[in-house]
Each structure stands twice: as C-alpha cells, then as structure tokens.
C-alpha cells in the first residue's frame, strides 16, 4: 500500500499527460530560444557556441549580449519591428471594418440559412493558406488579372504596380485572416439578446444610436478576440510578405526566416524571436483573458 | 420574427464579402484549365496541367508524405486535445490551472516562425544531450504538428463540453459508474461530432502548414506546402492551379459529407432524447 501513494491517481494522470506534453514541447522550447539568443554563431553543428563551459573545476557561463546589441544598433531591425506592428494593426483595423458587418449580417440572418452562411465563411480557410495567397499573385501582378481588365476597359495605359508592394501585403493579410475575425464576432453577435435592441428602439433610439450604444459595447468581447486572432499572427507573418511583399516590405517574421535559413545565424534569429515574443506578450495575455472568459460564459 | 429592420446595404455588403472571399479561389480553378502557361490570358480549355501535375514525381511524393503526416498528426492531436479539453472543462481550478489554460491558448495565436524556431532548437538540444531524435524528419514533424494542432482541438472540445448537459454525466456517476466508464460510455459518444470536427480541423491545419514544417523537417523530408512554396517562388505555374483545384474539390467534398453526417447524428440524438423524455413522462 505504500507504493500506491507514489503512483499517480486517475485524476493526476489525466491532467498530467497533456500538461507534460505541453511543458516539454511548448514551454521548454521557448526557454531554449532564450538561452541560445545569448550564444554566438559558430562554424559547427549546431552552429552556435556553448553557454556553459566547465573547465579547470570552474563552471563559467558566457552570456553574449552581442545579438541584442546588434538588433539595437542596426536600424533595420527596429524599423522592421515597428513596420510589422503597423502593418498588422492597419490590416486588423481593415479586417474589423470589413468583417463586422459580415458577422452582423450572418448573425441576424434567418436561422435556416445561418449555418450555411457561416460555412461559407469558414470553408475558404480550410483550403490551403499558401494556395490562397498564391492566387493573389496572378491577380495583382503586372500582366495579372486586374491590370488586364483595367487595360481592356481603357482605364489605364500602363499596368499598375501592385504585386510586391505593401498594398499587396495588406490585401493578403486581410484576405487570409478575415474568417478569423468574423468567427468570434459572429459567436458573440448571435448570442446578443434582441430584446435590448427592441427596448432601445421602443425608447426612441435611432438605429445608428442603438448600434453605437447597445450592439457595439455588447460585442466588445468578440471584437477583442477577433482582432487579436488577426493581429498577433500577422505581426510574425512570413508567407504573405515573402510572396506578395516587395524589397521594401520589412516584416520581422521574414527577417527571422532569412537570419535562420539564409544567414544561418541561429543566435540572432533567436534574439529576434525573443524580442518579438516580448512585444506580443501583452496582446497575447489580453487575448487569453478574453478567450477564457468567452469559454466560461457558455 | 426580428423587429429590427434589416438594411439592404447589409445584404450588399455580405454579397461583396463573399465575392472577396471566393473570387481568388474561383479564378485559380478556372485558370487550371487554361491551355496557355500564362495564368491571365485564356487560350482554350485543356486538362494538360493536371496531367503534368500527376507526372511530377517530387510533387506526388511530397503530397503522399503530407497526407500520411496529416493523418497521424490529426489522430495524435485529437487524443491530446480531448484530454486537454476535458481537463479544462471538467476539472475546475487545480494547481497550475492558469499555466495549463495559457498553454492551450498560446498556440492559437503564436506566430509560426517563433513556434518553428523554438521546436527546432529543442530537437537540436535534445539530440545533443540524449542523442534523440538522431534525424529530423517524420518524427519531429509529427511532434510539432500534434503540439500546435492539439490546442485547436482542445478549444473545439471545451466549447462542446460546456454546452453539454452535465447532469447526464452526474446521473451515471450517481448510479455508480466509475469515472473512466462515464467518460467512455457517456461523454465520448455525446461529444463525438466535436471530436470529428476537431480531427478534421487538425488534419487541414497539418496538411497546410509551411512555416513550422520548414523549421523542423530535416533535409530528407519535404512536405507538400514546402514543395509548393519553393515552386511558387520561382513563378506562377498552372500546375499549382491544378493542385489548388484538387484541394478545393477535396475540401468541399469533406465539408459536405461531414456536414451531412453531423446533421444526421444531431437529429438522431434529438429524437432519442425526445423519446427518452416521453418514456419518463
């Protein structure tokens, strides 16, 4: 019976399996990224130096702050961080402006076709992300569909330069992430009690006033969840700037990728990741708070 | 019905929204049947790009690898995600509850470059210390995919469990069923549709992933998105359009079949509940 005390109970096992998995493959990796951001690039396998050296009975830790200093000194990185935040914020705003009326329209639709409309929103996001971004290359490029159409209509003489610009990146982000904006908004708006709207109307409020002072504040949770679902991944987006962006498109996810795959500088790539994570920690906690609230409300 | 008037502008906006979402996909499909290599000029109907796609050995082997990976990852993610979702929804506040909840929501929004880099560095460090995994490839891809997909499965499961009437589980417990028996005989069958949609979600996420896979795949393993990305970087090719058309067809079929099945399961359950209520009355 003594042994039994050391064996985990059923409850412990059920919690323990996912807990340990996530600790091992989610939390520990971040700790390692943090550690390697203080290493130095080396011609070796793996291509970085050891942080802790044990020699002559002394354990010494060599923390190389060079990677972080490099990120501060080279303006490229600061500009890239700022422009990623800006791009993500603008794209999130656009997605909210486009997505909110769609979510509202679907939530207020006849219950019979509501699920079908919702499926219509989700379906594109089940087809490949990469292929949907690829589709925009054919639409936006110099001899692409839009230019072809505008020239046929004699609206322009020379093709517009759209592909490989920041404009294309905005379109890409809004297009790819729009369903993630609409879904939480819909979940929120569909629960909205219509009697509030009726009450406001009965008391003489104009429709726009009802919307501004009743509907909008009540859908705050959905707005936050949807915006964070777009904003946070968009800051670190790689595929969209890589395929649709131009040489002047500075996005930090693309820079991290290039540091890692092209320059093979793992320590600098790690430092880039650490700073990105620090920038995103507050939005992430905000999202987490609202996510748990939403789940507890059901 | 609804007393609030529905503005016609709203319907126009909805129509525009759906047009925006679907036009690029429809254009992809149309030009997959284009005779010319130019993706923008229509030169007549042809299925030759499909022929070329099925001749491309590298593309086919990448697709085969991605399919196997997605099957295994979705299955692993469902097991882990159901556990995690059940813990979140039914275990109240245990020690470490906040950390646990954070570990479920973080992968939903985490930029993929960070997840990919961190997992690769973990695998490299593990190899140095314990000698495993000696080669990066299918195993490391599987671990990475299970980890990020399971969070999505967990969210689907949690919302289903919260909706579900807990009194059924409590009744079984009162009648003396042990917890594990309640879980397998009551909970699992009721949340089966959520498990199925979680599996499908994980399957599509795994099949689609480029960034995380690029970090954790060794030189030997190339997934379909990795192959597509490298060929897209070289330029537009109608072969990729043909691939896209096949993917869209497969997804639509899957959605239609699973939608129909879920509708039937749901209706049968409702009928059973009604019958049970009639019996007790």
What brief labels describe this structure?
heterodimer; A: 298 residues; mainly alpha; MetI-like fold; two-stranded antiparallel sheet; 14 helices; 2 strands; 73% helix; globular; B: 281 residues; 2 domains; 11 helices; 79% helix
Describe this structure in words.
The complex is a heterodimer of chains A (298) and B (281). Chain A is mostly helical and 298 residues long. Chain A is built from 14 helices and 2 strands, in the order ααββαααααααααααα. Chain A has one domain: MetI-like (MetI-like fold). Helices cover 73% and strands 3% of the residues of chain A. In chain A, helix 2 (10-36) runs antiparallel to helix 14 (266-297), helix 4 packs across helix 8 and helix 6 (129-140) packs across helix 8. Chain A is globular and about 85 Å long. The mean pLDDT of chain A is 90. Chain B folds into 2 domains: 58-235, Orthogonal Bundle (MetI-like fold), CATH 1.10.3720; 239-281. Helices cover 79% and strands 0% of the residues of chain B.
Question: What secondary-structure arrangement, pairings included, does this model have?
Answer:
The complex is a heterodimer of chains A (298) and B (281).
Chain A: H1 2-6, H2 10-36, E1 52-55, E2 58-61, H3 66-73, H4 75-107, H5 111-126, H6 129-140, H7 145-152, H8 166-190, H9 194-202, H10 207-218, H11 220-235, H12 239-244, H13 252-261, H14 266-297
Antiparallel strand pairs in A: 1-2
Helix pairs in contact in A: 2-14, 3-14, 4-8, 4-11, 5-8, 6-8, 8-11, 9-10, 11-14, 13-14
Chain B: H1 8-32, H2 48-55, H3 57-90, H4 97-109, H5 112-130, H6 138-163, H7 166-174, H8 179-208, H9 211-216, H10 224-233, H11 238-280
Helix pairs in contact in B: 1-11, 2-11, 3-6, 3-8, 3-10, 4-6, 6-8, 7-8
CATH-defined architecture of the largest domain in chain B? Orthogonal Bundle
Could you tell me how far the N terminus lies from the C terminus of chain B, measured between alpha carbons in angstroms?
Answer: 32 Å
CATH superfamily grouping of the largest domain in chain B: MetI-like
CATH superfamily of chain A: MetI-like
Taken as a percent bin, the fraction of beta residues of chain A is: under 5%
SS class of chain B: mainly alpha
CATH topology of the largest domain in chain B: MetI-like fold
* Overall 3D shape of chain B: globular
The helix content of chain B is: over 70%
Please write the string of helix (H) and strand (E) elements of chain B. HHHHHHHHHHH
CATH architecture of chain A: Orthogonal Bundle
Number of domains of chain A: 1
Q: Mind telling me the C-alpha Rg of chain B?
A: 23 Å
C-alpha end-to-end distance of chain A: 43 Å
The domain count of chain B comes to 2
Q: By helix and strand content of chain A, what is the structural category?
A: mainly alpha
Anisotropy-based shape of chain A: globular
- Give the class-level CATH name of chain A: Mainly Alpha
**Contiguous helical run count of chain A:** 14
């Amino acid at each position: 019976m003594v042994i039994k005390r050391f064996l985990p109970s059923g409850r412990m096992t059920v919690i323990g399996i996912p807990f340990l998995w996530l600790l091992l493959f989610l939390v520990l990796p971040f700790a390692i990224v943090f550690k390697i951001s203080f290493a130095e690039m080396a011609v070796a396998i793996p291509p970085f130096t050891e942080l802790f050296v044990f020699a002559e009975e002394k354990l010494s830790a060599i923390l190389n702050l060079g990677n972080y200093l490099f990120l501060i000194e080279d303006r490229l990185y600061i500009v890239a961080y700022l422009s990623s935040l800006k791009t993500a914020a603008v794209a999130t705003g656009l997605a909210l402006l486009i997505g909110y009326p769609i979510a509202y329209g679907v939530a207020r639709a006849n219950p019979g076709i509501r699920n079908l409309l919702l499926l219509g929103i989700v379906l594109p996001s089940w087809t490949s992300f990469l292929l949907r971004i690829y589709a925009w290359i054919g639409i936006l490029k110099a001899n692409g569909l839009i230019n072809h159409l505008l020239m046929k209509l004699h609206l322009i003489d020379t093709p517009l330069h759209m592909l490989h610009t920041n404009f294309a990146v905005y379109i890409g982000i809004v297009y790819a992430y729009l369903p993630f904006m609409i879904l939480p908004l819909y979940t929120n708006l569909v629960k909205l009690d219509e009697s509030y709207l009726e009450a406001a109307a009965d008391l003489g409020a104009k429709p726009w006033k009802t919307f501004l002072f009743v509907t909008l504040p009540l859908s705050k949770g959905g707005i936050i969840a949807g915006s964070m679902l777009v904003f946070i991944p968009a800051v670190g987006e790689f595929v969209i700037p890589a395929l649709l962006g131009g040489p002047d498109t500075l996005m930090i996810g693309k820079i991290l990728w290039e540091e890692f795959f092209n320059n093979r500088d793992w320590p600098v790539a790690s430092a880039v990741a650490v700073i990105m994570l620090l920038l995103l920690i507050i939005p992430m906690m905000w999202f987490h708070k609202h996510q748990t609230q939403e789940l507890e409300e059901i | 019905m609804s007393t609030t008037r529905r503005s016609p502008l709203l319907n126009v906006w909805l129509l525009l929204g759906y047009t925006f979402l679907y036009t690029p996909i429809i254009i992809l499909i149309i030009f997959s049947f284009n005779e010319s290599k130019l993706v923008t000029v229509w030169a007549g109907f042809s299925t030759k790009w499909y022929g070329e796609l099925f001749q491309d050995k590298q593309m086919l082997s990448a697709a085969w690898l991605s399919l196997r990976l997605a099957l295994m990852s979705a299955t692993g993610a469902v097991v882990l995600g159901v556990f995690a979702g059940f813990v979140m929804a039914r275990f109240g506040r245990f020690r470490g509850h906040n950390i646990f909840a954070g570990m479920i929501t973080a992968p939903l929004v985490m930029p993929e470059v960070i997840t990919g880099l961190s997992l690769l560095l973990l695998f490299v460090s593990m190899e140095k210390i314990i000698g495993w995994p000696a080669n990066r490839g299918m195993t490391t891809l599987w671990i990475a995919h299970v980890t990020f997909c399971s969070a999505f499965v967990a969210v689907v499961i949690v919302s289903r469990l919260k909706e579900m009437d807990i009194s059924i589980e409590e009744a079984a417990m009162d009648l003396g069923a042990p917890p594990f028996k309640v879980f397998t005989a009551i909970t699992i069958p009721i949340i089966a549709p959520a498990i199925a949609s979680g599996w499908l979600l994980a399957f599509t996420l795994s099949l689609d992933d480029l960034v995380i896979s690029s970090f954790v795949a060794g030189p030997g393993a190339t997934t379909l998105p990795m192959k597509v990305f490298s060929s897209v970087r070289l330029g537009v090719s109608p072969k990729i359009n043909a691939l896209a058309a096949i993917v869209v067809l497969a997804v639509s079929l899957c959605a239609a079949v699973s939608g129909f099945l879920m509708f039937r399961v749901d209706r049968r359950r409702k009928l059973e509940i009604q019958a049970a209520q009639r019996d007790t009355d």
